[in-house]
Amino acid sequence: MDTQNPSALPRARARVAAKRHANRSSTHAGGLTHDTTRHTVRFTVIGNHLAQHPELSGLAIGLGVHIQSLPTGARVDIKTLTARFPEGSTRIAAALRELEAHGYLRRARERVPGGRIVTRTVFCNQPGRRTDAEAAPEPARSARSTPAHVGSVHAGPGNLAPEHPRPEDPRPGCPAPEHPRPRAPRKPLPAVPQPACTAPGLLRAATDLLADLRRHDPRLLLSACDTAHLAPGVAAWLERDVSPGAVRHALTGDLPPEGLRRPAALLAHRLAAQLPPPPPFREPVRTPGVLHPFQTCDGCERAFRAPAPGRCRDCRSGARAAV
Question: Which domains can be identified in the chain, with CATH numbers?
Fold first, then answer.
């Protein structure tokens, strides 16, 4: 009867001893102590590779955590984040560039139907593993291993998964289909100055000058469409008394040694930005008239100017009237 519950006291002593040991270690050794409560709703799973990143700044880590917790379609541009946080736009932009440099953030500008250009922002919760996550079956995708698309299509990895699969999700066990991104249309060339006179000879001279630029720099090989766009600008220079050699030097001088992606756009910018003023006005030179010597009229003996002797104008008129 006196041996009931023989193990109750040792277990109680063990708990007290463990508690005293934890208090003693936290009191004397210092350091962090967690007061942990399990989340059941409204939580986001953050990897230690982001929360303890050795190269990211504190602001970049904080922005990464904030962006990862946002739902689908949330705006994460610099203006919106500056209004949300006390840091200025310069620091916000620098932190976003840090996340972009380390693979957590991807930003691309796309043209949507209607001609408007929007920025597509993609947040990846595990940089470098996007391909593996996209190829994983549906159960692995529901475990929040896919990259977060903020402000465009997909929700952040920490948000609760939808109860029903989306129509665009692949079937279980099948890899996700790859959809090629539409290619953005080519930007139009800058406007060029227009000549006052559109004579065919002037436009022909301008076209020949542009076609000859490739002899000075092979990168200036222009298409027929680009040449037709630039020819009026060159004609505007030529009609301002600028020699073809001076126009060629203005277009080909000080070109960048590398990185000349759109030579026609650079030439159009130079034609418009460096257009010389019109030549100064010069009054046409008048040719002086011939001054004839004085002659004595044979009819009235009056003096008049004429290249040879004879009758004056009045005498000639009277003789014609008499006839």
Answer: 48-150 (1.10.10), 200-273 (no CATH)
